[in-house]
TrEMBL record:
InterPro entries reported in the protein's UniProt record: DUF1844
Pfam families, A to Z: DUF1844
Region listing for Disordered, in residue ranges: 108-128
The protein's name in its UniProt record: DUF1844 domain-containing protein
Native source species: Enteractinococcus coprophilus
Length: 128
């Protein structure tokens, strides 16, 4: 059995076979709706940070609209594709969060995208 090794001198942490097997055992117990929701929350958080909406004092220093566009588009694809199988209890708050990010992107943009061409709008339709 392999155990994690901390190579303190080189700052490298290796995972062994037991770690991978434990993670696989744990993930198989998680419902798909929860995996989709968790992934969506990670994308939302990353997009919010790229839009300067983080809760740190210098959040505006981290604005990167190109990166935010990619994250929001990926989020939109995930939500649109996953929503029918997730049910409205899971999908509704994700849709609301997506719409909020799309509107924040539009507000942050110096040159706004035409309706229907903003991040994720090819999946969600125009957002106003």
């Amino acid at each position: 059995m392999t155990e994690p090794h901390d190579h303190t001198g080189d700052g490298v942490y290796e995972f062994g076979l037991d770690d991978v097997e434990n993670q696989v055992r744990e993930i198989h117990e998680v419902p798909a709706a929860e995996v989709i929701s968790t992934t969506a929350v990670h994308l939302m958080t990353a997009a919010a940070v790229k839009l300067g909406l983080g809760d740190m004092p210098n959040a505006r220093d981290h604005i990167d609209l190109d990166e935010a566009r990619k994250l929001i588009t990926a989020l939109a694809g995930l939500i649109v594709a996953g929503a029918p199988d997730m049910g409205s209890a899971h999908a509704a708050p994700l849709r609301d969060g997506l719409r909020t990010l799309q509107l924040a992107f539009r507000e942050e943009s110096i040159v706004p995208d035409p309706p229907g061409q903003g991040p994720g709008e090819k999946y969600t339709g125009p957002v106003n």
